[in-house]
Structures are given as structure tokens and as C-alpha cells.
């Protein structure tokens, strides 16, 4: 569902609305006779928010620490994020994607230009669902260490992800109804963010992780996935269920099954979808219905996975 978070010319009203939705913020640099012309629309997709922002005047801001991570694509205008201590500011121009509020628990400031922006709002804990914190990191959390992507290619890929979520996923009325879909989206966004920005996570297993990657533990992990396929299966919860680290879990699947835990979960859900298509009445059931039921956001991608696994289109299976 899309709601208007902010639509005002008044700086005071904008401060109040932004403070209520993000964190306490102070705006400056807008002459008293000028109109801010600020508008923000938000679509809530569970663990991910999708926002369209427009500002009709440049302004400076100071903001308290953010709970969530914001990923912002600049369409027109300019976004400047100043580090809390002295240092080089992060500057994003049209076409750039910038991570806002990278330093958790730290206030920051900057400048926003007259222009248009798109933004994803991601709960930070989803980064830990993709990679694990490095050994010895007392915080136990994965953090971004930079606000700008590691390369132009990484920037463009993330811009494409944001655009796809904004223009396609956010427009589907069913998108926020299924925990399987919303949590799959959060993992997809988190993985895309981690592939684009430098971070503290460690994807490679340690020596202890390798020792913990036994066939017996793998069987327990596979059984857990099979018994919970109709629910959202978080990487951290699966690791806790078999008493290993997320890195060990990923390593044991690669070593013994030549896939990731997420890929194995997808295979199990594909099998359920296949059985559902075989038993379904094509007069009342569509391939998209079945795909959504089993957590596949994109019906076209579901069809590709299905064909790779079963050698035919899911539409052929449904027609019997």
C-alpha cells in the first residue's frame, strides 16, 4: 500500500514529518520566502520500504542516528553526506546510488539538492542473513564501511535492483501480503547491497566452520528446510537450529550438495510448486498464483527455474 508521508512547502512541517518517519532532523538553508515543495511517497513491503522523493529547493540537514539503512538513487539534483568527524563527504549525482546512515548509532548531516530521488529502506539485520560477522567482531553485526559502491558496475547493478523493486514489485497488490515474498525481497535487496558496498562481513568459512560442516549436520539442516518450506526460513535461524555458524552452514551445503542453503530451499519449494501445479484446476489456478504461494517474486524467473528442473514450462504442467 502506498501512502504520502510528506507533501508540504513548509520547512517546519517537513522537519516534523521527516523526524517522525526516520529520526530527529533539523533543516536549514531554505530562505523564509522560498517554498521547500517536499513530497515523499512510501510503499510498505514488509521488511523493505520503497520511497519516491521530490524536493523543490536545496536544503541542509542534520539528523540523529538512523535505525534503518537507506539506499538512495539520485535521478536529478545532488545528495551530499558529510561524515560526523572531519573527512571527505560522500557526493551522489544523477545516476549514483548512495547508502545513507552507514555508521549505525552516529548522527550525520549533509545537503540535498532540488531534484528527484528513489529510496529503499532496509532493516539492518537483513545484512546478517546474507553474510556472517567476522570472527572477533564483538558487535556480531555486519556493517557497511562505505557509502558509495565499489565500482561503476556495482552502482549500476544496484540502481537496476532499486528500479525493479520500485516499478514492478511495489506496484503488485499482493507484494506485501505474503511473508515468504516480503522476506525473500529483503534478502534479495540485502545481497544486492552487500555486493555493491564494502562491508565487514566474512563469507569464507573459518577452520572451526569447516570442522562443523559434517554430513550429519547437513541432514539436519536439510530436514529443517523441508519441514519449514512453507514458512520464511532465515539463514541465521537455520544455523541456530543445527548449532553452527551461518558460514559453516553455507560451507556444508557447498561441500556436500554443491549449492547454497538458499538454492536448496528454492529446490524444495519448486518441488512443492510442481506438485501443486499437477493437482491444480487450471480454470481456477494460475502459474503466478502458485509461484507467489511458494515465495517466488517474479513469475518469469520462477518459469526459468522450473524449466531447468523439470524440462518444461510450468504452464504445460498446469494444462496437464
Automatic annotation (TrEMBL):
Source organism superkingdom:
Bacteria
Going by the UniProt record, its keywords in alphabetical order are: DNA-binding, Transcription, Transcription regulation
One Pfam family in the UniProt entry = HTH_18
List the Gene Ontology MF annotations in alphabetical order. DNA-binding transcription factor activity; sequence-specific DNA binding
In terms of InterPro entries, this protein maps to:
AraC_XylS_family_regulators, Homeodomain-like_sf, HTH_AraC, HTH_AraC-typ_CS
Q: Which residues form the HTH araC/xylS-type domain?
A: 219-320
User: Could you tell me which SMART domains the record lists for this protein?
Assistant: HTH_ARAC
- Please state what the protein is called: Helix-turn-helix transcriptional regulator
The protein's organism comes out as Mycolicibacterium rufum
Q: What is the lineage of its organism?
A: Bacteria, Bacillati, Actinomycetota, Actinomycetes, Mycobacteriales
Amino acid at each position: 500500500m502506498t501512502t504520502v508521508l510528506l507533501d508540504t512547502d513548509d520547512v517546519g512541517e517537513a522537519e516534523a514529518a521527516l523526524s517522525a518517519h526516520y529520526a530527529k532532523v533539523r533543516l536549514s538553508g531554505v530562505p523564509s520566502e522560498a517554498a521547500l515543495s517536499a513530497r515523499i511517497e512510501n510503499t510498505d513491503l514488509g521488511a523493505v520500504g520503497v520511497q519516491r522523493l521530490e524536493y523543490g529547493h536545496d536544503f541542509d540537514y542534520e539528523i540523529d542516528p538512523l535505525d534503518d539503512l537507506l539506499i538512495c538513487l539520485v535521478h536529478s539534483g545532488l545528495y551530499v553526506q558529510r561524515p560526523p568527524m572531519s573527512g571527505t563527504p560522500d557526493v551522489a549525482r544523477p545516476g549514483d546510488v548512495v547508502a545513507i546512515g552507514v555508521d549505525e548509532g552516529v548522527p550525520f548531516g549533509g545537503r540535498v539538492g532540488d531534484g528527484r530521488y528513489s529510496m529503499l529502506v532496509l532493516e539492518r539485520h537483513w545484512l546478517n542473513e546474507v553474510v556472517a560477522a567476522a570472527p572477533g567482531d564483538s558487535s556480531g553485526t555486519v556493517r557497511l564501511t562505505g557509502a558509495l559502491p565499489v565500482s561503476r558496475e556495482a552502482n549500476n547493478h544496484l540502481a537496476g535492483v532499486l528500479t525493479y523493486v520500485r516499478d514492478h514489485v511495489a506496484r503488485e497488490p499482493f507484494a506485501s501480503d505474503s511473508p515468504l515474498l516480503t522476506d525473500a525481497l529483503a534478502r534479495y535487496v540485502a545481497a544486492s547491497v552487500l555486493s555493491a558496498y564494502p562491508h565487514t562481513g566474512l563469507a569464507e568459512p573459518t577452520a572451526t566452520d569447516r570442522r562443523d560442516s559434517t554430513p550429519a549436520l547437513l541432514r539436519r539442516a536439510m530436514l529443517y528446510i523441508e519441514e519449514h518450506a512453507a514458512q520464511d526460513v532465515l539463514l541465521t535461524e537455520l544455523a541456530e537450529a543445527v548449532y553452527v555458524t551461518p558460514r559453516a552452514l553455507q560451507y556444508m551445503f557447498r561441500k556436500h550438495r554443491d549449492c547454497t542453503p538458499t538454492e536448496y530451499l528454492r529446490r524444495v519449494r519448486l518441488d512443492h510448486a510442481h506438485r501443486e501445479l499437477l493437482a491444480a484446476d487450471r480454470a481456477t489456478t494460475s502459474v503466478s498464483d502458485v509461484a507467489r504461494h511458494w515465495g517466488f517474486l517474479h513469475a518469469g524467473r520462477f518459469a526459468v527455474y522450473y524449466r531447468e528442473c523439470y524440462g518444461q514450462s510450468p504452464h504445460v504442467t498446469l494444462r496437464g
